[in-house]
Amino acid sequence: MKILAMADVIRLKQIEHVKNEKNILQEIDHPFIVNMRWNSKDDCCLYMLFEFVSGGELFSYLRNAGRFDSGTANFYACEIVLALEYLHSLSIVYRDLKPENLLLDREGHMKITDFGFAKKLKDRTWTLCGTPEYLAPEIIQSKGHNKAVDWWALGVLIYEMIVGYPPFYDDNPFGIYEKILSGKIEWSRHVDPIAKDLVKKLLVLDRTKRLGNMKNGAEDVKRHRWFKHLDWNVVIRKQLKPPIVPTYVFNSKEDDTSNFDDYPETDWKSVRSLDKIEMQLFEDF
To answer: Boundaries of each Protein kinase domain copy (predicted)?
Structure first.
């Protein structure tokens, strides 16, 4: 359950972001995306109920492993490719691909979560949003961006999975932005050359030449040599064997939360109710 205090949403000027998230989540239904089951509101909070994905964050598994071998990274990448292809077919740009937003279900398959930055696109958008290490150059340069930013982020993610850290890293965001705009990437010797080739074609500064954003769209990514062993119909049916199967402390996978960290709960009793004028801002939620 995602609970948002409406007073905080107003204060942080996130009304449109929250509405976008809810509208997009109502529209989508995909095996590799966390699905929203219900939403509502009262006089103080917004509520969104999601399916429970019990395996935990990919981020945790990656940090524990240090890095993934090429086969493990390939498994997660192929499921993400199909999720992005689906979103883009609906003119939705995701804009927040990173290991923290990728969950494993009880069998070990991928689920993308957190659509707070997602947006339905008519043409291009200019909002600066996302995680610094994963931002495409056109976002940093405020040139206007489209679905190509998700393919850039996929390149960053694949690199991070097989190397163990992002390709563009610095102690402060501006240092990260400079490295992204330079386009220079350092490679470890152990990296699978075919995976390296895919990453280089995704991390192209010119988005018109970026794999996934050309005439054939996602098909160009799916046809890359790194994925040549795959039957994509088998992938979408979740018939590939996951490389990591979550373990559970309790007998039931359905309600075991042991794969997630504990966080302090908000004191909801202290959340203020909205007045009638403020409530009008959320009348279509």
So the answer is: 1-227
Catalytic residue among 8, 29, 69, 96: 96
The CATH homologous superfamily for domain 2-53+254-282 is: Phosphorylase Kinase; domain 1 (3.30.200.20)
Gap between the Cα atoms of 151 and 84, Å rounded: 8
Residue 64 pLDDT exceeds 90: yes
Residue with the two structure tokens 């054939």:
216
- Domain 58-236 of CATH type 1.10.510.10: yes
Residue range 30-41: mean pLDDT, rounded: 96
What CA–CA distance (Å, rounded) separates 76 from 102?
9
Question: Are 103 and 113 a contacting pair, CB within 8 Å?
Answer: yes
Active site residue 96: yes
Answering whether pTM is above 0.85, one says yes
